[in-house]
User: Fold these one by one.
Assistant:
Number 1:
Amino acid sequence: MSEKTITRFAPSPTGYLHIGGARTALFNWLYAKHTGGKFLLRIEDTDQARSTEGAILAILDGLRWLGLEWDGEPIYQLARSERHREIAERLLAEGKAYRCYASPEELVAMRERARAEGRAPGYDGTWRDRDPSEAPSAVTPAIRFKAPREGETIIEDRVQGHVTFANKDLDDLVILRSDGSPTYNLSVVVDDHDMGITHVIRGDDHLTNAARQTQIYKALGWLTPAFAHVPLIHGPDGAKLSKRHGALGVEAYREMGYLPVALRNYLVRLGWSHGDAEIISTKEMIEWFDLDAIGRSPARFDFVKLENLNGHYLRSMSDREIVSQLKSLVPHLPDGAALGARIGEDGWSKLEQAMPGLKERAKTLVELLHNAEFLFVSRPVELDTQARKLLDETGKKILTQLMPRIESVEPWESAALETCVRQFAKETDIKLGKAAQPLRAALTGKTTSPGIFEVLEVLGRDESLARIKDHTNATKSA
RNA sequence: GCCCCCUUCGUCUAGUGGUCAGGACGUCAGGUUUUCAACCUGAAAACAGGGGUUCGAUCCCCCUAGGGGGCACCA
């Protein structure tokens, strides 16, 4: 039996693709790639009240951005309702399901009663054996699955292991609503079966569903897929992931300046490991990924580690590649239009030129852009508080002395400029920093920046000299 | 309330019936240095608690505590 692996990611489009979903998608994608199988996408849009077109687009977009391309066309669950209904009818015809005439009010009362008596709040099976002739004519019935009452249902989970549920704890769930629409657990079983899914990898919030679904598979005489229920991701405080933490859509991570490659690396290590490996290329992930190495305990989301990883990948990328990443990122930024205008045509090449110094210092693309701001500002450069302190009388005096020397540097390259300034420092018997810092302040308006000689070179002779003059002239007039 | 799952440094994790319990991020201390990063060196830092089983348990079993998930005519 050498059937191909088929996995799927099945989000419900009621919001963006959040980080937990992204990891689930990644695991499914990796497992499919690892085994040379297929990774399918199914949109579970049967909750018509909550599903939106926008959410679908956000999910597809998020997956593409993360680099998780699916095979074939996405399957829309809603479009398959007829098939689901057909299976529900089949179950009914085979006596494996029955019509339930209980009204919503009766169900509520039933639950309250159960609660009061300390029993599970499930359906009590009133209509399971009741004679259909007693059915109230005014009520259109829902169809309930006739779940086994004795024995147990066992899940052989690839992550959670051998999990046993007592059948008495699993009630008769509705598979077809009174309006004729199928419900989740039936749809999932039918779709996974029809799509030929061999491995269901999903969050462990579905573990109980796996038991119910297993019962349906059995009633239908279908083989169950392999299950792998992955522990959920928690927020930094251990509580459920909220918007405050990381339950943001992946587009939010994009806007924060994270790289897909870094996010994949971070996510794959959340709950999965391969010995001591930390920096893992996508190729290695595919090669190494397996269900057996997925951990059973939930993980907390740690932005700091994500940042570290992102910085690592940023540093290892080519200057050109980063520029192209930035070009596609800027339009997605909140103030993107303005920033894009400020950068202009000229800015991109300056950015690439300054990239060696910039990428060393940034953890995210956004931070990098922020640090590159000095390239785009127009004269006179505005000084921040710290920079102003550096350009005190002493600082300005040094710059004034240094000015003519710099002016004569030829060619205008960082090495030559460095030689010049070092020479100056030596001759005037000051530390290099005493000259470099005021220079930095005058050129960038800040106290931190890439190496000052690179800054001079990238800014160019005219701009650099002008920026310095802006601040030395002030000395004379003062 | 009932059912299910989980528990190794602050965090992500490796690990074995006998290990100095390993790595990474972070932290701290040095080094390098024109700033900030990066980088290098070093340090502190964990087997939730209690019972067993065993010559010996972090590892196997039970209990407790804590955390998480699930109990819809939502998905």
Number 2:
Amino acid sequence: MADKVTSFDVARLAGVSQSAVSRVFTPGASASAATRDKVTKAAEELGYRPNTLARAMITGKSRVIGVVVAYLENQFYPMALEYLDRALKERGYHILLFMAQNDGNVGQIVEELMSYQVDGIITASVDMSNDIAKRCDDAGIPVVMFNRGQETGTLAQVTSNNIEGGRTVAHFLASGGHRKIAHVSGWQGSSTGLDRMRGFVDGLKDHGVEPVAIEDGRYSQDDAAIIARKLCGTSDRPDAIFVGNDHMAFAVMDCLRFELGLSVPEDVSIVGYDDVPIAAWPAYDLTTIRQPINKMVTATVEILLARIEQGAASERIQIPGPLKIRGSARKPKGFST
Amino acid sequence: MADKVTSFDVARLAGVSQSAVSRVFTPGASASAATRDKVTKAAEELGYRPNTLARAMITGKSRVIGVVVAYLENQFYPMALEYLDRALKERGYHILLFMAQNDGNVGQIVEELMSYQVDGIITASVDMSNDIAKRCDDAGIPVVMFNRGQETGTLAQVTSNNIEGGRTVAHFLASGGHRKIAHVSGWQGSSTGLDRMRGFVDGLKDHGVEPVAIEDGRYSQDDAAIIARKLCGTSDRPDAIFVGNDHMAFAVMDCLRFELGLSVPEDVSIVGYDDVPIAAWPAYDLTTIRQPINKMVTATVEILLARIEQGAASERIQIPGPLKIRGSARKPKGFST
DNA sequence: ATGAAAGCGCTAACAT
DNA sequence: ATGTTAGCGCTTTCAT
């Protein structure tokens, strides 16, 4: 018993034309106070709300943004989603959600994205970001990649400064007197994973230190735990590990503490990347690079809507992420970034 | 550029009528192999995809489900979202996401849900579930409340058996020899919070035990920590605490261990509710009632789509949640539910 | 400022 | 099996 109320019904009741009703409900349109009043009353009485779909068909704007995410178990993603929704809602847009399965059917997602007439797309750290982004971009739908980039190319992207972040961690760890330093990297098929690693290795070099091990944790807790076990299961273990994101860092810490009986940071210092809320929980108290998620989201939305609404060009933005020092890693005396 | 390709363009190129094109892209429609072939080729060539919006306008079905969630920081929600998306996608539906801010503008959300012509709505443990649900239901849009219910009423809802869950915890704790048992409840303005509490108190009564304290944690980590501090800051502390959900339980454990210097479970046993993935992390190793999220989601989608597609009646379902015994609470010898 | 009329891209009778 | 013809509910010229 519902939404069968159309602008015609309202028009009839208000004693005006249907287009008058439309005007009253269209932000920029002109209508006399009298008309406006009659229409508003009639609409109220009938419980009328404009059909967004019909409007979208005509204007060619759905005011819907397709957001593609994967693996919500890593707290970084739900946080991004929450901020994204807030920023988008402020501008009058809504999120149509797409979960990229790991066995990712990129083709299908792209099809669906397009058939729903989304005005734009945000891919959030999805493995196949590049793939999806390129195809949608080719199809003329504005895309921006959130927290993932590509080495070369012109697609819009927003990341933190991963290279600089990795370098900062290196500096911090080396200054703390660590010399046997390992790295459980983020997925080496991703720009983020690669950049953090490169910056880290580079930064270490500045201190004349070479990492004792680098292993690809692929952003998986299971993989990270396995690596931690291997790395620290011998007496020849590293005295510090930089882990490619917080999500893996938690698994690494748990493995060291509860499986290997080691202390963090006394036996091994751990540093992560992201600064998700859990990192601040006392059980982990993780020293980590803070990805300024709020700023990143704001920039993402800004860029995307500029493209959609003003046809602006694709931008590629990097936002610096400061080191958040907590208790999971030995602190250098008088450390400064 | 892009998506300006319509079924007419395809029709022209394929040398058939526009409706022939429509039929080829409509699952149940009839078209000869020849036509189907020509159309498919032409469509391919032009990069045509049907406009879902236009289709939705005619059929009156958008194949979009509005999902209202809040507070993604509690891992239970993102998990629900992930399962929901999977189950819905399987049936050809998509999720339009609505974040309910705490300062919740229920009215606006309802407006938006309706104007987007969603076929149905799922509210996931949102504070104002009842409010939103009732209004949408009144408007004729099928709604099911996920993990939240109402005492009386006919709105569709899916929860775990919270009363039974609370009772199970009581039985477990009492059997473990605990006698000074406290409860940090879920929000007492919610059915889930209330039911778990009631079941718990009831179950304790069976053992002739009365809770030493019951405080409303309102599903907030901050509130829970404050309560834990108050409860366990004295020598007269409880020897066990049942916390209304895992999310709060983590905060309680952290407070006891890192602030108060207590041991869990040696000094105080902790039991939670939900069994989110983090509960299994060694740092917490939380004994908790497992909300069978997968089954709950399946049921939710089932009920909703039955209403949408077959006009079925609203169902109210409760799914039993077993106790998952881990290490955060002393184990009774030979315990059986 | 307002009404009439022409579609947006598609599906669903209705014919053939 | 296929084409023709109405619309779905709305925005947007175009007159008035």
